[in-house]
Amino acid sequence: MTTVLLVLVAIMATVVWWLVRQTINVSPWIERRPIEDVPGDGALPLPPVKVGLGVFLAVATSLFALLISAYFMRMAGADWTTLAVPKGLWLNTGALVLSSVAMQWTRNAAKRGVIDRVRIGLIAAGVFAFCFLAGQLWGWQQLRASGYFLSANPANAFFYLLTAMHGVHLLGGLWVWAKATAKMWRSMEIGAVRLSVELCTVYWHYLLLVWLALFALLLSTPPRQNSCSPDTIAICGPTR
Amino acid sequence: MHGMIMVVYLLTALFLGGFGNYLIPLMIGARDMVFPYVNMISYWVYLFAVLLLMASFFVPGGSTGAGWTLYPPQAILDGTPGAHWGIILMLVSLAFFIIGFTMGGLNYVVTVLQARTRGMTMMRLPLTIWGIFMATILALLAFPALFVSAIMMTLDQALGTSFFMPALVAKGQHLDYNGGSPVLFQHLFWFFGHPEVYIVALPAFGIVSDLIAVHARKNIFGYRMMVWAIVAIGGLSFIVWAHHMYVSGMNPYFGFFFATTTLIIAVPTALKVYNWVLTLWRGNIHLTVPMLFAIGFIFTFVNGGLTGLFLGNVTVDLPLSDTMFVVAHFHMVMAVSPILVVFGAIYHWYPKVTGRMLNDTLGKFHFWVTFLGTYAIYYPMHYLGFLGVPRRYYAVTGTDFIPQSAHSLNAAITIATLIVGSVQLVFIYNLIRSYFKGKPAGDNPWQATTLEWQTAHTPPTHGNFGPTLPAVYRWAYDYSVPGVEADFIPQNQPPAQKAPSTEEKPS
């Protein structure tokens, strides 16, 4: 559980830091006399959707950190046999990087108001993202073909679970992407999609980071790691 | 089922989904939540989750019999009721609940952050909002742990993976499971489960602070401390989870660590209790029904909290673990206490919701029977726990250490439970009758300062505040201000030319 604790400490530290900045040296019981003294509401200078996305990313981070924590703890079991990560995943990673780059490019274009580039960029980002997802499915197919079934070993189960979780999050992003693209097709207004493009870009980069972390985790898992017997996992488990 | 329904589907949903959705926009001076559409989806997903859970009563094998902790391997093995369909429906329902809650939770947090009206700084928020706000943050970060464990357990049950399931022999047959870790589930579950306690408690803390201030006609004692205590409890609640697992065979040093953090979290909690009592101190206490419930909450919460100190220590917890003492403790501290606040809050805000007052006599009758009745139910359980009577058994017979008197006590508890349960019908009758025949309440029957009582219409119409949003000039607790004629000043009342504030420093 160390992983998730570290992540949560970081998130909570951010929350507490912000809250303390809002609350320290404030004496709300003192009346402010002139109306000009009434401060604003102290909201963040961002559209609510962006704040919402930020909060959602914190939730998703908590989710993935928990999965990674569970991965580490379950890895200590005696029956863990690390699977050979399919080589195709490198290609998929490339596709996801390209997708992220295309998104960033789209965002810059949207900022400058170049409508053709926004269209091309959106399509490219979407196509690469779908390539990634198809590649992931193909990776599953390969694993199944070579006998790495879901229930055969916890390493396999975790592989499917982690990739599926990440894929589902990407699918959610693609839904927003699809709405933005459809809007782009119907109208020539760039203002209508600028916010969506910005949100997608942040989300794409985030999912790329998550994927890189997961991929590194899958690759770096040593072929056979077993320092604890299953009986003592209660004692060994929490330390990792 | 009982525990899960009560803790997650009732208390969490009621405090955050119910009071959160109603009170946040009204109290911060907003027209609506910032993402109303997402809010609507959140509601339907929640309803779907509830229906799934209720459906589990009717599937083959019935609903799950694993208790709210759902510990594997027991939860999904033959011999436990609902080990097939029941548990699957429970887990899927939880997953949907969490998805729905995440949508709602995003709404609460972003609304509090971004939609406050002019002048409503964070430090002018009523403590109700602070409690709901912090509880939502906790829930957003903690529910993923339940989500992960629900999905992994579903896979274990349905597809035969071994995340949590160790090698097992059942009826002489080796099951297909191998090497899984039930303790891993316990870690994930309680990583959610402990913050969950505070997800329920923090909104209750916030609401009770407001009830006490309004009905004692006094500003809340130590507002800033109260806010910081809420934040501190929120932060600490993530590093105490393993005190639910002392008997799982963990390293003694972990036990020591978690016992220490558990006792530390008592500091901000006690601070809040002191502040409530000091708010009452020399206040102009009106013993209205909401106030009775608020005071009842303080008593019950202190009682339940004190037994928590026993259970927080490893050496004391070991013999008491899984006895009726634990049942008494957590029912006092996180079942009865929050429910008293829910009742108090309903009596307090019902006039705003419907425009009519609830009947006072029926309310007082409801309070006294409920309050004293719950003590008749849970107080004796402490003694049963000391005797070593275990929890989770519907009947204990043929054991030497349980004397006949314990059985009589159990019978008395059952009678008290039936009485308390039937009195709730009076409450429901009161809700229905007052809706049609209650005394008209007017806009501000309690003479409270917060914005929800300053709306143009009661009940508030669409958009809450009429053509212009209120501006806020002061904090939420200007009761009995010296030198002011009325004993309260609403938050949106502009300062007079000659404000009588004596505390103000020249700036």
Explain what you see.
The complex is a heterodimer of chains A (240) and B (507). Chain A is mostly helical. Chain A contains seven helices and no strands. Chain A has one domain: Up-down Bundle (Four Helix Bundle (Hemerythrin (Met), subunit A)), CATH 1.20.120. Chain B has helices spanning 2-28, 36-55, 85-114, 127-159, 182-215, 223-236, 252-280, 289-312, 314-320, 324-354, 360-387, 404-437; strands at 169-170, 173-174. Chain B has a two-stranded antiparallel ribbon with strand order 1-2. In chain B, helix 1 packs parallel to helix 3 (85-114) and helix 8 (289-312) packs parallel to helix 11 (360-387). At the A-B interface, helix 1, helix 2, helix 5 and helix 7 of A face helix 3, helix 4, helix 5 and helix 6 of B.
Describe the secondary-structure layout.
The complex is a heterodimer of chains A (240) and B (507).
Chain A: H1 2-23, H2 48-75, H3 88-112, H4 115-145, H5 154-186, H6 191-220, H7 233-236
Chain B: H1 2-28, H2 36-55, H3 85-114, H4 127-159, E1 169-170, E2 173-174, H5 182-215, H6 223-236, H7 252-280, H8 289-312, H9 314-320, H10 324-354, H11 360-387, H12 404-437
Antiparallel strand pairs in B: 1-2
Count the helices of chain B. How many?
A: 12
Order the strands across the largest sheet of chain B as they lie in space.
1-2
**Beta-strand share of residues of chain B:** under 5%
Proportion of helical residues of chain A: over 70%
Characterize the overall form of chain A.
flat
* Spatial extent as radius of gyration of chain B: 24 Å
Q: Which fold name is given in CATH as the topology of the domain at 1-160 and 181-233 in chain B?
A: Cytochrome C Oxidase, Chain A
H/E element sequence of chain A: HHHHHHH
Give the CATH class of the domain at 1-160 and 181-233 in chain B. Mainly Alpha
Largest interface: A-B, 60 and 78 residues
Give me the oligomer status: heterodimer
Structural class estimated from helices and strands of chain A:
mainly alpha
The shape of chain B is globular
